[in-house]
Amino acid sequence: MALPEARIDATEARLAGVSLPKGAAWAAKAREAALARVRAMGLPTRRDEYWKFTRPDDLLLPEAPAAALFDPNEKPVFSEIDRVKLVFRDGVFDPAASDDPVEAGLEIARLAEVTEMDVHWASGLYGVLEAEGHDPVPRPFAALNTATATDGVAIRATAKARRPVSLVYLHENETSDVAMHFLVKVEAGAEVTVLENGPAAARFNKVMEVDVADGGTFHHIRTQGRDHERRAVTHIFARLGEGSIFKSFTMTANGILTRNEAVVTFTGDNAVAHIAGAALGDGDFHHDDTVFVTHDAVACESRQVFKKVLRNGAVGTFQGKILVRQGAQKTDGYQISQALLLDEDAQFLAKPELEIYADDVACSHGSTSGAIDETALFYLRSRGLPRAEAQDLLVLAFLAEAIEEIDDEAIAADILSRLEGWLSRHRKG
Amino acid sequence: MLEIKNLHVKLEEEDKDILKGVDLTVEAGKVHAIMGPNGSGKSTLSYVLSGRDGYEVTEGSATLEGADVLEMEPEERAAAGLFLAFQYPVEIPGVGNMTFLRTALNAQRKARGEEEVSAADFLKLVREKAKALKIDADMLKRPVNVGFSGGEKKRNEILQMAMLEPKMCILDETDSGLDVDAMKLVAEGVNALRAEGRAFLVITHYQRLLDHIAPDVVHIMADGRIVKTGGPDLALEVENNGYGDILAEVV
């Protein structure tokens, strides 16, 4: 079907300054194909159903809107975790600031290197899960990323890695417009944890393609930096083999535009996927979690747990779908999206969806938005907790179900302290 | 300890007095009981004293050791030594009982300018107090009151009281929903806290709790006022004859 002219114009305007990075023949082909996908789908407009809650305008501008740099003036998250640190400054890998990317059980290479060579596991993954992820809903920013991303890393786990790979994004240029692409291949029975933190750029487009083979385990814990003015659209595409485990948790505090999409497909039986998020927003904060889980195998378990704490005009949105294909019997699907509105100006928009074509499944979803429980607040205060402390305690209690999705206790404690810090800085005063 | 004078209270949303001039003085070291029929204003009195929203004091005063409690925030009242054991303890999912107890204890200490209790000292203290109330480690770990039985909730209230060591303890129908064994356990917990510098105001429908927590003074409340005050015998009189005779007598 031909696209409307307005959409073609908008898409071409965005693509005007775009050039495809050089690389090996397979990479060039993958990038050209991705660009063709962008043109075929067209970039989203405000009228798109899938972008109803989130305006894509800032993502469509030819140049990134400026975002002020921000010094959080604290030790970054994950600092105390024993990890393989890889640092990117406005989307460019900085080897001097990074650890030597050597870890038993892992192969780690820069995207630029991988796309210049013929690494078959990488060429078989780059843009592949992204390309499969447009059915039934197009995700053109992800295709744009595959076409234009200049840096990132490819990680292959061949055994159980002891230390997590920690991607650290630094934002140093007020108008940086960055696309980064990551590949994660978890071989059968292997295990890796990927951490991400930092604001990355004024405008950030990130794609991570994760292929977990039978019995493999992938853990992902991400915090999105406190730089408030950044715009970010991120996608994680995952394909899960038999008996594999995929767990992804994201904490977001601040940000005027963040859209995090997760597209997860079970291709092997008895696999597990948990996707969780805790978002804290104040003022002109807009946070969008868009999740699409496809059960195409038997007896898989998926959990989506998304919690948002919003105040003072902040907007949170959630679009989450569980699609159970015919034959995906014994599916266990769970989805919860909840917002705690700390005042009457905050807004939560949610669209939970179930689409089921198998008859022997257990699926549930729930979505709520509510205020602080005044009875509980009074109970805590009557025991001596000042109002602000009592409220913070109730907010953390609200977020607990999402935070519990982090398996590693040290990381969970680190995340919790960040949440506490944010709350104490954003108390109604 | 607690001095209430001519206290008039109405619901914020309604123009109707619930308390119509309560006068009550509770001395340090004493246990006072308030009995009265349903709707007499007993629970309202406890809520107003602890600072719950929704009530408006239209006249009168309430002081704790001379300080005006009605002017204080609920947490300030707690730090000043006022404690209300709730008739319906609130369930708080996601907040661990231990975390709650420690945060509350340290918040009060901080408000009074005292040093916070260390994690180790706290643990020792809470274990000792919990044991006396037959509260096991599991109950301490669970979220506050979530999944607790009626008796467990009330014991948890007494544990909080034991940990926070308030000066003025108000027990709002602590016996409701308790079987005899649970009531004994709760009463023992309260009796163990009886001390020179501490006073109790025990609000109850029935005399049976007062078999276990012996009061020094018994008040009868009706229609928003204290209508009769007497010794422990007064509770027995209510038990034997109901409220009818007493109320007829005072009207």
What's the helix and strand layout?
The complex is a heterodimer of chains A (429) and B (251).
Chain A: H1 5-15, H2 25-41, H3 57-60, E1 84-89, E2 92-93, E3 106-110, H4 111-114, H5 120-123, H6 128-132, H7 140-148, E4 153-157, E5 165-170, E6 177-186, E7 191-197, E8 203-212, E9 217-224, E10 231-240, E11 245-253, E12 257-266, E13 272-282, E14 286-295, E15 301-311, E16 315-324, E17 332-341, E18 347-356, E19 362-370, H8 374-382, H9 387-403, H10 409-425
Parallel strand pairs in A: 1-5, 4-6, 5-7, 6-8, 7-9, 8-10, 9-11, 10-12, 11-13, 12-14, 13-15, 14-16, 15-17, 16-18, 17-19
Antiparallel strand pairs in A: 1-2, 3-4
Helix pairs in contact in A: 2-7, 8-9, 9-10
Chain B: E1 2-11, E2 17-26, E3 31-35, H1 42-50, E4 55-64, E5 67-68, H2 74-80, E6 82-85, E7 92-96, H3 97-111, H4 119-132, H5 137-141, E8 143-144, H6 150-164, E9 168-172, H7 180-193, E10 199-204, H8 208-212, E11 217-222, E12 225-230, H9 233-241, H10 244-250
Parallel strand pairs in B: 3-10, 3-11, 6-9, 9-10
Antiparallel strand pairs in B: 1-2, 1-4, 4-5, 7-8, 11-12
Can I get a quick summary?
Chain A is of the alpha/beta class and 429 residues long. Chain A is built from ten helices and 19 strands. The radius of gyration of chain A is 21 Å and the shape is globular.
Describe the structure.
Chain A is α/β, with parallel strands linked by helices and 429 residues long. Chain A has one domain (5-372). In chain A, 23% of the residues lie in helices and 37% in strands. Chain A has helices at residues 5-15, 25-41, 57-60, 111-114, 120-123, 128-132, 140-148, 374-382, 387-403, 409-425; strands spanning 84-89, 92-93, 106-110, 153-157, 165-170, 177-186, 191-197, 203-212, 217-224, 231-240, 245-253, 257-266, 272-282, 286-295, 301-311, 315-324, 332-341, 347-356, 362-370. In chain A, strands 2-1-5-7-9-11-13-15-17-19 form a 10-stranded mixed β-sheet, covered by helices on one side. Chain A has a 9-stranded mixed β-sheet with strand order 3-4-6-8-10-12-14-16-18. In chain A, strand 1 (84-89) and strand 2 (92-93) form a beta hairpin. Chain A is globular. Chain A starts with a helix and ends with a helix. Chain B is an alpha/beta fold and 251 residues long. Helices cover 40% and strands 28% of the residues of chain B. In chain B, helix 2 packs across helix 3 (97-111) and helix 6 packs parallel to helix 7 (180-193). Chain B is globular, with a radius of gyration of 18 Å. Chains A and B meet through helix 8 and helix 9 of A and helix 2, strand 7 and helix 3 of B.
